[in-house]
Amino acid sequence: MKISTRKAIPRDYQKLLSLFEEVDKLHREQHPHVFKKPQKPSRGRDFLFKQEDAVIFVAETENKEPVGLIHIFIKTSKPIPILVKRKYAVIDTLIIAETRRRQGIGKKLTDQANRWIKSQGIKQIELSVYQFNRPAINFYKKRDYRVTSYKMEKNLN
Question: Cα angle vertex 42, ends 95, 106, to 5°?
């Protein structure tokens, strides 16, 4: 089946929420001390579609069924004297429907994101991925992402 990618529009909102629920459920299961099931939609329409310097691309089937998405933000470094002033992209979320993984959809979405990021004059992409998500870590490593820092936690009993 042919998969295409395009910029998401507000009309996609409800369908995108079902994709977000897949990744949110995984995070709730792995880190229940951090993530919970929300009483209302996990992400508001304004957060997804009215953020400056942000974009969502959706992957969909010929029947317009969304099977993946990538949400990207453009950020500017904080004005701290030790930091080099720079703009960079952040992949906030990359989701592929569980039934559609390992079919090249993630590659299509990241390629689309890379083209958009370059068109914005940005040359660097950052992202965070939880240690439990080995498939995502492997996916990014295959695409030449490298670890630059570790986020650590400790529970005090």
Answer: 5
